[in-house]
Design a protein that fits this description.
heterodimer, A: 460 residues, alpha/beta, Rossmann fold, 5-stranded parallel sheet, 4-stranded parallel sheet, 14 strands, 45% helix, globular, B: 547 residues, 6-stranded mixed sheet
Amino acid sequence: MLLRHTEADAPERKALTINPAKTCQPIGAMYAALGVHGCLPHSHGSQGCCSYHRSQLTRHYKEPVLAATSSFTEGSSVFGGQSNLLQAISNIFSIYDADVIAVHTTCLSETIGDDINQIVRKAKEDGLIPEGKYIFHANTPSYQGSQVTGFASMCKSMMDSFAEPADKPGDHIAIVPGWVEPADMREIRRIVEAFGVEVTLAPDTSGVLDTGLTGTSQYFPDGGTTIDELKACGSARTVISLGPSASGPAGRALESRCKVPCEVLELPIGLQGTDRFIQSLSVITGKPIPEQLKWERSRLVDLMSDMGQYFYGKSAALWGDPDQIVALSEFLCDLSMFPKYAVTGTPGKGFMKRMEKACENASGPCRYEEGQRADMHKMHSWIKADKPDVLIGGTHGKYIARDEDIPLVRHGFPILDRIGHQYFNTVGYTGGMRLAEQILNCFLDRQDRDAPEERFELVM
Amino acid sequence: MALTPDPAAVKEELLKQFPAKVARKRAKHIVETEGEAGQEIAANVRTIPGVISQRGCTYAGCKGVILGPTRDVLSITHGPIGCGYYSWLTRRNQTRTESDTDPNYMTYSLSTDMQEENIVFGGEAKLKDAIREAYATFKPPAIAIHSTCPVGLIGDDVHAVAREMKEELGINVFGFSCEGYRGVSQSAGHHIANNKIFTEVVSHEAPTQHFPVPEGKFKINLLGEYNIGGDAFVLEELFERCGISLVSTFCGNSTYESLAQARHVDLNLVMCHRSINYVATMLETSYGIPWAKVNFIGANQTAKSLRKVAAFFDDAELTAKVEQVIAEEMVKVDAAKSSIVPRTAGKSVMLFVGGSRAHHYQHLFKEIDMKILAAGYEFAHRDDYEGRDVIPNIKIDADNRNIEEIEVHKAEALYNDRSSPEAEERLKAIDGEGFAEYNGMMPEMEAGVLAIDDVSHYETEKLIELYKPDMVCCGIKEKYSIQKNGVASRQLHSYDYGGPYAGFAGAINFWKDIDMMVNARWWKLVKAPWDMPEDASAAEARMVTLS
């Protein structure tokens, strides 16, 4: 057994986290910043943080992830990291010619109280920021929130730093897409553009973390939201924040700063999540729902009904980001399944309410928790006591999957041992079809594997 | 193969884009080798902020590298959640328990998950509770506490907590002050880990020394082998076939008990000099166990290293056995080489990795006739480049002073000098390195190639542009950038999830992988047909095929 010390009646804990269902804020800030065109994320702290984040993002995407660090030593930890950050700024602009640097803090620089605003002002005074180049930042101490809060804070900072209020709103829509994959960002853009309106996604990692092989490497790939687009978010007709945890703060910041009406939705994963997104777009644009999208919806429902008997009554265990878990839970219920267990290390009471709503139509009892010790070890002990039919979450779940002989659908962050998540969307109706197919195939493969010979089916 | 550019010109080109101050600093890290000892290189000094380095931190070197592979020492990360999370199973240290019920904690990540109130009011109480809870769940023989950046800053005393918990729980509990900012790279973490492992586990004064003295006629330890991709398994088997008793590996596939038995051997073999030479030196000082530098990466190097063991013990039966094993393995090695070399000969490679791998892996490449264009370490010190003779001349700076130097004394009753001038002469006859000697990477490199310390992302890209190598070996962060250029890259930290690469069997695995990487069909498909120059006859032939 890989997790041989986990038992059904695991002792209660109040201080120790075992096998977390979250990580720290800065990696989320780094991922968000990569979605800005020409942007180099910068980690203000020890160089290990930056190294860990780049490594983990690279393992997930199999793509270059460029980011710099202030490389704190003991001296900078005692006297402050100003001189390190100033050096870094000068070096990044002269060596890598970035258009923009997105600084995020770490537990180290936050504990010693470095003031990034003041350091950036000093950089300006010292002439370290070339004309037409930018620096923006987010405070992301690792001892608060999770990677999701770090992502949210960096997205919010994009709006706070760049969005320009306008007297007259434009026609375009701004979308904060949430912590989803580059493929999802492409799909969200396609859905909005089907209404015939212009859209800015902020951030947008498509074209950054899913680039092709051409024989030429670029420090800064072609994708990403440009600074001009971020500025123009201030004149958007509406901003839609997809995922309250990851995108809520950015949308609301845009609303309070530039008076752009903000709508916060759950991620458009699965049927109803996508329905609501599309209905909102129809209301905002004043346009009817495009035939293409209606047709896509009907195909998803068709799949769900054709194969409904295999989904019916099945249960899942989920872990990861609250936005993903909530949206997936609702979709599972629509598939006549239910989220038997769900844990997220990302703290926030809102999760419990959102789950309650998402599980309204659940066909079985749902147990879910959030916060520090809502970890994979706790979920595993629940699983030991009573198994679900499928596991849905990041790669770390494969240890439970093997020990307990439960199929695993890889979803969310991080996926370190399979590909597909970068290329194929799980948002929208088309994404719903992919998710449903992945879950269904698990059940059918199991049935094929476990069926006695006389009950082995050709047609299913 | 394209003509190799002049290394002096390359160096100039590498520095051109840097601001003057950066260029001055980096110039000292880039050396055109002369193929002999005595050249100086700057190493183990601060990374320049903003240059994009490969390096990690002290915590990574301590928890990730040294303690990571020991399966039954329960590691708890004291700090916010990230550090424990990122070091969770990401280094590919394999381990094999003797039974299904033996403890194995390597699949678990334990953290105190410090929150803001712990930063403000201190985290010691939470740490104590976490240790109690960990004990309740795992009942481990030993617990290690790893400090992350904020711990040192807020003044949590992990060592005091460890002492208190040791008393309370009746098991060994020890702490590491391995905050990420302590050194200039993960190297500081290796040193900090070595010190504590020695005083808390290896030394006869360590709390638990009730383990039985291991049996065996020719007893050795293998230091600095971390069982990435199963390397240690290959070497364990090799020693067994030769009749050599491997008591303890630091720390691949190791247990608390095996580490605690380390002082009962006659010879220490040092693989990764950078990460583990401190333990080797302490074992020598305390107990009189000499150490010899070995390298089990590369077939000839493996043979040489086994011969060094045989030469040390100077036993006819052992020597015969070792020669027999080498002869048996070399048949397979030669067969593999002769099939692969025609496809790899003349191909070129650069290696920027680790604290010993950039040196060790050159042997593997040379054995399949590949040319080394440049090599450098990520976190090594000058002695790893220039040889240990340089150690007295290395300037101690503020960053080095941060790392505790512990005083280790001769353990009078247990001290037994197992070295002898005769044994040393026998070792020297093999590769010129006697006891406690390592000549470093640079003197072994061909003249006119570049040694580059702590290479930056910019430099790596520039080198690819200038040298157009067939392959660059780095780590995960660099791999895909390199490959976007259409150049193969193999990770030498994680072996791209393959391996093992150690020993004779590992060498064969490695060559197969390198053959695959440099000759892969996918590199030839990067250019689309419409981007290829096409002569008229080819165009005509294509039309004919279609019609």
